[in-house]
Every structure is written in C-alpha cells, then in structure tokens.
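=== RUN LOG ===
request id: a7f3
mode: sequence -> structure
chains: 1
length: 355
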Amino acid sequence: MFRKAMKLMIPLGIVAVAGILAMVMVGSREELKPSGAVEPLPHVQAIEVTLAQVPISIVAHGNVTSRYELELASEVTGRIDWVASEFQPGAMVEAGTVLLRIDPVNYQLALAQAKAALATANIALADARALKRQAAIGEGELNIEAARQRIVKAEQDLAYTEIKAPFNAVIDKQLVEFGQFVSTGQPVARLLSSDTAEVTLPVTPAEAGFLESSMGAPVLLSAQIGERQQQWQATLQRIEARVDQASRVIPVIVEVQAPYDTSIHSHRLPLGLFVEATLPGEPVSSAVRLPSSVLHADDSVFVFADGALRRKRVNVVHRAGGTVVINGGLEPGDLVVSTRLDLMFEGMKVELSNG
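=== RESULT ===
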C-alpha cells in the first residue's frame, strides 16, 4: 500500500517542483522597457496643380476610302474585241482612258443606214416641194427630223462601244474579260476615284463637341508602312448630323486631296489603308492635364494637405492617352497624389516624398 502511494506522489512532486521553478524564473525576468520606436508613415508623391489653357487632340482610327465609287456598265450590247493593258484590279487610270472596246461593226452599219435614211428623206421632201404637195411636204420634214435623230442615236451607240474611265480612278474590280459577250447595262468594272480620298472616323458625342469649331482645320493621318511611320495631311471636312445606332458614335469625315500625288505627300496614301487620325479640338481653359492613375472612384482625387490625404471630387472633360483633363474641383497649388497605395482614405496620415 505504501509502495503504491509513493509511486503516485513522486510524479506529483516533480510537477509541483517544475511549477515553482517556472514561477521563480518569470518573477525574476527583467521588465522590458519601451523602445520609443515610431511606425513609419507611407510615402506618396504628388503633382502640383497649375491651371492653364489645355489643348485637346482627339485620336481616332478609320479606313481610307474613295470619295466616289462607280460600278461602270456597258451601254451597248456586243462582244469585247479589245482590252487595255491597264484594265486590271489595282491599276490607276486617268479620266478618258479607254478600258475596253466592244465590236463596233453593227453600230457602224446602223450609223450608215441612218445617214442613208436622211438622204432618202431629203430627196422625198424635195420632190414634194417641187410638186407643191403640202401633205407630203409636212411628212417629209418629219421624216428628215427622225432620220437626224437616228443618226444622233447611232453615233452615240458607236461612241459607247469604247468604254472609258469617267474620272481619274483606281480599278477596284475587273468584271469582264476579252472575248466576252456583254449586254446593255451589264457591269464591266468597279472604279474608285483617286483625286480625293476620305476617312470616316468614329468619335464619341463628348469628343465631337470639341470639334464643332474645327471645320476646315488640318488633320494629321499616320500609318506604319514598311519600317517607317508615314504621315499625310488631311482636312476636317464635316461632322455627320447623326449617331450610329449600333456603335453610338458620330462619324467625322476628313478629306485628303490627291492621295497618290508624291509631290504633295511623302508617300502615296493607298485606298483601304487603316490609319490613325489626330484631330485638333477646341482647347479647355482653366484646366490641368494629369495622369489618369490619379483618378479614384466617382471621379475623385486625393490631395496632400497638412500631412494627410484629402479627397476631392473633380470634373473630367476629356480622357485620352493615359491622361485626363480636369477643369473643376482643383485649385492652383493643390498637391494631387499620384501614388496608388493599397489603402487610401480621407484623413490618412502620409508623408510627402521628395522624389
């Protein structure tokens, strides 16, 4: 019995001794003194606001198109017996160039017959006048006029056997071949005028408002061709009085004169090219241009004042190229915070960085 009591008491004694030693060690530990360290404040950078007149440029993109597009059709019927070497897609032709010729034999015959009919009508009229037959004289005069009109029609049809380019153009599509039989009204080619090119640029209604006073202003077009960035001068021609229902943008048309003339442009401006246009807009007064990264929710910014952040609502009038133009809500000398912290709130203590 005694042995069992001893076996039970020994572990309890060890635990008690360990507890006493622990208490003694904790009680004898030297009390830690405050280090006096201060948690560092977040560092931010800021941009000082200077209000001035800020120029506005609208950047848009579009395809170069011809001002006039024509589906050229044959005005007579017959077989094509000659085709010009320029009559092929992509070729440039001048106004009046004969593109193809339809066999003229039938139309030459029709012209000869019309002239013969006129001669016969003149003889009949002379006989009627000699015999003083008034009814025959009236009929003869009508026959002569009809014969003259048939000659005009025959000469016109004969001229139509040569199909010509009505203006300086680029051949977009060749729709017939040598030896093919064509009918009156059948399309033979699709032509794109080359004297004037247009670019239709989609802009938002807000951007279009900056362009209303810029009619006739120069516009810079640019595109990458080969290794070089080429540029062309254009003119702001018009702003369409409609909003596209699908895209909700307003089409703006710019015009390029003589796009293929290298004496005017450093490089030809081919039709169909996708270009970037820089449109000059009306400048904004009493405004400042800032990086778009300074904007927070609800078009607000943080300014640094008295060692803390202060939130201000601003009026943004234009956004483009990673920048915003603000013309309300800021005062000259305001320090707009450009640093984005993970957490930013009104009254937050920060330190302004010299960098």
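=== NOTES ===
The radius of gyration is 44 Å.
The mean pLDDT is 89.
=== END ===
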